[in-house]
């Protein structure tokens, strides 16, 4: 059983060349989406290793987890990059809000752990 609207070619739709073509193309695009997601996960792993190290150093030095000036510069740069790549700058900004928000939560946790270990 498949849910209504799922991307499958069944007995009812297999005679329709357009449906078959669409399903095949969607399958190929999904392969590309999966490869992109795998690359993004690898990059996110590298990014969070880097920001965790910054978090350790900030906690050691007694710096605050957040640096609003740095974030403003990052967002401006990312919005410009997005524009030149033909990507909606709001997506770049949303990405930054997501990763920097998590990085700051992790910085705060790292600082607490350093405090406890003292
Ligand atoms: O560059 C820093 O100071 C970081 O802590 C990293 C980072 C980021 O995720 O890029 C996270 C929090 C800061 O507010 C700014 C940037």
From TrEMBL:
InterPro entries: Chorismate_II_sf, Chorismate_mutase-related, CM_dom_sf, CM_II_prokaryot
Pfam families linked: CM_2 (PF01817)
Cross-referenced Gene3D superfamilies: Chorismate mutase
Limits of the Chorismate mutase domain: 20-111
SUPFAM superfamilies: Chorismate mutase II
Region of interest called Disordered, as start-end residue ranges on this chain: 1-21
Polar residues composition bias: residue spans: 10-21
Keywords, ordered alphabetically: Isomerase
Protein name: Chorismate mutase
Recorded name of the encoding gene: tyrA1
């Amino acid at each position: 059983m498949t849910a209504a609207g799922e991307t499958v070619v069944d007995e009812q739709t297999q005679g329709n060349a357009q449906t078959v073509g669409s399903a095949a193309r969607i399958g190929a695009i999904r392969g590309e989406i999966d490869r992109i997601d795998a690359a993004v996960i690898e990059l996110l792993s590298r990014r969070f290793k880097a920001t965790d190290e910054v978090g350790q150093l900030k906690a050691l030095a007694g710096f605050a987890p957040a640096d609003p000036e740095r974030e403003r510069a990052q967002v401006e740069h990312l919005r410009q990059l997005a524009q030149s790549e033909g990507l909606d700058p709001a997506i770049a900004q949303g990405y930054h809000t997501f990763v920097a928000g998590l990085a700051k939560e992790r910085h705060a946790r790292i600082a607490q752990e350093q405090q406890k270990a003292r």
